[in-house]
Each structure stands twice: as structure tokens, then as C-alpha cells.
Amino acid sequence: MEDIVWRPAHLTPEQMEERRLAAARLLGQGRFSQAEIARQLGVSRASVSRWAATLAQQGRRGLVTRVRTGREPRLDEAAWAHLGRLLDRGAMAAGFATERWTLQRIAALVEREFGVHYHPRYLERPLKAHGFSVQRPATRAKERDELVIAVWPKREWVVLKRRPSGKAARSFFGTRRVTASGPDRAPPGRGVG
Fold first, then answer.
1. Domain containing 35: what range?
2. Model confidence at 53: pLDDT above 90
């Protein structure tokens, strides 16, 4: 068997069905162990074992994708793509006071543009599922002066480099280290004998 190097992180329901049916074909051939099939398909041995049991009880129709139940997604893929373009333009272009996107602002934008209400608390998961990620702005001091920062290494590094090192170097303040035990006292932790 040939090893597959790359596998996608998320499979569509159709791809998962195709993988289950490939496992059914390999199981039907009887030439490979469940462990070898699992390794080839990139799944756990437990999955192959479960598929083999389903195949034995229900046949190939047991491995076919079932119709998804539940509520339809509120925004379709075209709407998510349009939302991505709106987010790329920036929060100020969308009518907000600053450029910071928050879940509350995104929820308001979705409701205004698409007429779909999302509670901000539950908006993070669908955003992540559609490729959006949390972007935290870099915090910088208002007093930050880029020119001073750019010049500092050129001006100060020369001075720092010229200072003596090793035993000849003195501390910054030119003072000696102070210890709790002076010349008359025994070092701490030792008994007087």
C-alpha cells in the first residue's frame, strides 16, 4: 500500500462517505487487516472496526451519508464571503467609531446587512468555522517615539560596548555588595563554635 502524505483538516460529508465506502471495499477484499486499512485511510482502528460492524449488519447502505437534520445555516457561503469583504474594509467603513472589530459589532453588521440575528456570544464558532480568526491589536504607549527608538541602538550601543567587562568592571553605582555577615560575624546558617 502507498502512504498518503497530506490530508485535509476538515472533510466534507461527501468526502467522509467516500472514505467509509473505500474502507468497505478494502474490508470486502479481505486482503488487509483493520489496522492496515485504518493506517491507509488516516483514521483510528476503532473507526474501521465500527464501519466493519455496520457493514456486517446493514451492508453498504449503512455507510452512506444520512440527510442532515436540524435548522439550515442562517447565512449561506455567499453571505459569509460578502461578510469577509465587509470586515476587510474595516470597522470605521462599516460606521463604527474605531477600527476595532468586536463580536457585538460583527453581530450588528450581520443584522444590518443580512437581516439575520446572531447573539454575539454564539457568533464566534461560525466565524471560526468560516476561516475568521481573533485579531488582537498591538497595544502601544501614546508616548512612544519611533524616532528615539530607531536612534537608540546606534547611539547607546557604542557606549555600552566600550564598558569593561569581567573583574575589572564595577557595578553600575560603583559600590560594593553589602552582605549580612560582616568581617566579625560568621556567615548565616553556621553555628558559633
1. 13-63
2. yes
